[in-house]
């Protein structure tokens, strides 16, 4: 038995995505720990994050030579990319970064039951989804955020500012805003769209915002609300299902309560959360959050402190430990 080499498929992407960033982080963690690891790309024109010093080598699809001793890891939306691993009888792993694509990309007539592929989950809710739908127990490998970039700044002042990501469910975001403005007037808050920014730009924008409105779903383990908490924002809104890995309700009497099991965590309520797609509840949560910011005091401090604890639990240091532990287990 040779030493296990790891090959990780990099899907093509023209712009930064959280999923690809996480795949690259995993490869670099393994590479820096002295484990032979390669990122494999289909086409070389894709986006690459800068600033990685000791980065894992990237090879072309045609240069990959898999053996039965190797591990071939592919994100869940690209089941066709599993083929070379299946042909080589390598150890094939599908890393499920979003439960919503677990079945959507499978070829017609193919089920996960038939494939000699083990599933790995990005979060506890995704592992629960996998277990209930396929019967597989998927180990969990969570993403991490860089606390050197995402950290709180000076105290926040001025008009209450709401950061949001316009590309996430644009129509619903517009409805939440309309409901909020009809109830509170058009000038109650300042809206700050987060678009076209690198990680440093996002962190800077979040540090000078009071609130983060989460409009994205479905999600596997959404990083933007974590980044917002890390920067001292109070997050509000949808959870994407996967967000319940770390999201805990700060509302004393929430209008929505998840029916699936939540794991034990060391922090208390870190945001005001509602059901995905419920624009009215999201607007009401936003209104309540604005009230909390204006009022200040121990209630607000407790939620923001829980956000810092949450962000610390998802640091890149924690990610490094869990990646190395997962590979030891493999």
Automatic annotation (TrEMBL):
Full protein name: Glycosyl transferase group 1
Native organism: Pseudodesulfovibrio aespoeensis (strain ATCC 700646 / DSM 10631 / Aspo-2) (Desulfovibrio aespoeensis)
